[in-house]
Amino acid sequence: MVNRQSLLLTVLTAAHLAAGYKWPSPLYDSLEGFLFEGRRRDGSNMATLQHPCKVRTGTQASIGAEWLRLAYHDVATHNIETGTGGLDASIAFELDRAEPTKAPRATFQNFGIGMVHSLDDFETFSTKYLSRADIIAFGTVFAVASCGGPIISFRGGRIDALSADVAGVPEPHQDLETHIEIFRRQGFSQEEMISLVACGHTLGGVRSSDFPNIVTSGDNPAVDNFELFDTTSQFDNAVVTEYVAGSTLNPLVVDTNATLNSDLRIFSSDDNATMRKLADPDVFSSTCATLLERMLNTVPSTVTLTEPITMIPAKVTSAQLTIDQNELIFKTAFRLSEPSNARNSKRIVTMYWCDRYGPDKDCVRQNVKTALPATSPRRDETTGSPILQRTGLDLVHHEFVVPINPDESISMFWFEVDEQDGARAKRYDNEGEGYKIAQDTIIYAPRLSSVTFSGAQRTQRQFVFVAGVKTGITPSRVFLSAFDNAMPDYAAPLNADFEMVFNDTIPAAAGYEFYTAIVDDSGSQLTIDLHAVVDDAVLTEDYQQTFFIAARTPFNRPTNVTIVRQVSPPSGPTSGSSHTWDLLRLEVIMGLLLAVTLLT
């Protein structure tokens, strides 16, 4: 029998090579990291707010159902004829939009504590490379997988709206013709409408405080009463089979007021033909995977999404040249994937690198520096992301901290992995090009930076950021670009440049002089890009985190360095390797990945 995890690793390797991935690719790296790790850069995990298929403390509502419903309501504004609306996070500005209706009372189209809670769940996770809309899409992917549903192929690159979009969400009291027209405007046929409603209503139910005309409150009006769409808490086709069998208690099917039975009108609109097809669990799963992916990819026509995000089996997750305790050091982390049921504690991972300056620049004399990890491997187990759990893989992080001679610096690095199984050690070198350090003129010094907190909730922060500029270089300008879109109540993002000034109160160290800038921020995910303008060229250190600064900066003592002879350090693309994999179409790879996933 073929080992499922080994086959999956092979498919994943093929997938990311076929997509032409090269490091660094900050957008892809960020999307891939969040999909398979589920957390932001400071370690806070969004996936585990819902995983494994949790209900919300207090209300006992299905968190997955709330996340899925929020995504659809955001998508519901899409108009295929004008190319406007879709998944753009405008839902954050639409919760209090009153819409006169034919219902017994005026209603809000997007309302309910579940939507408020979901937006609260997502508020602090967006970043420069993870839009608010992408985070909402991630929520649906996590929720469906966590509750046993299909793995939805994920694309990123959504662009956020900063105001409400047009109205257009279906409501229970509307007639069938109105529902068909609403879904047509969104890009779905009548059959797809039936299927999408069934896929959306396999989780959760109706809350009395949201629809008191459908679900009455219990003896205590202060406590919500729930009526579920089906008798299971999982993403399955029970909502269909119970309907077809005539045993359903779905409140949108069996309400005594026929006007409010929107699911009944939709499900029966083709004489139940679609529902009978969906009674097959495999048909239900594949149909939901397809339609929910289309739903999440419904964006304004001006937006171009990325290719599907697949796991990078061997990935550089961070790389930073910095000053720590007056010493120039290089920090990097290399993430490997391995089967959860076949852990290798004997694996040896070695980092290699070349000098940027001096007689052995770019390892021209084939003298290569090497070091072992500074810490024991750190493992991401499958409890972190439901997508990772479904692969049956763990992610293992190997962290390196090495001293760098300022006169030599570092130009590129790569890794060698010896599984200690008798096979030849495997080299990871960015497809023969090496993992290259773009520049060392300007670097980030988080240990020298600082932050102070203010405000009633201590949410207002003032940062003093420190950047090092190489001694002997006179830039015409040093500045930083600050970005934070994880703002309270989805306020407008911070997106501004700040001048950095030479600071002679910080002594020069390790070949660098220091510049500082002050930035005020009330968000949760501030990142900075550092820039130095030298001879009309702008040199940039991109996407630097601000959570681990000053005393919060982790310190690991730099490891010992060994110089070895290596006949062939990276110098360019490996002959033939990229071309061979580029012949593989990504659609074929994704099909293989789905097939392997279904072996669970």
TrEMBL record:
UniProt-listed Enzyme Commission number(s): 1.11.1.-
Presence of keyword ATP-binding: no
Domain of life: Eukaryota
Keyword line: Heme, Iron, Metal-binding, Oxidoreductase, Peroxidase, Signal
Swiss-Prot/TrEMBL GO biological process terms: cellular response to oxidative stress; hydrogen peroxide catabolic process; response to reactive oxygen species
Organism name: Coprinopsis marcescibilis (Agaric fungus)
Any Pfam family: peroxidase
Designated name of the protein: Peroxidase
PROSITE patterns in the record: PEROXIDASE_4 (PS50873)
InterPro entries from the UniProt entry: Ccp1-like, Haem_peroxidase, Haem_peroxidase_sf
Residue stretches making up the Plant heme peroxidase family profile domain: 62-295
Family classification: Belongs to the peroxidase family.
Enzyme class: oxidoreductase
Signal peptide: 1-20
Example GO molecular function: heme binding
Record-annotated membrane-spanning stretches: none
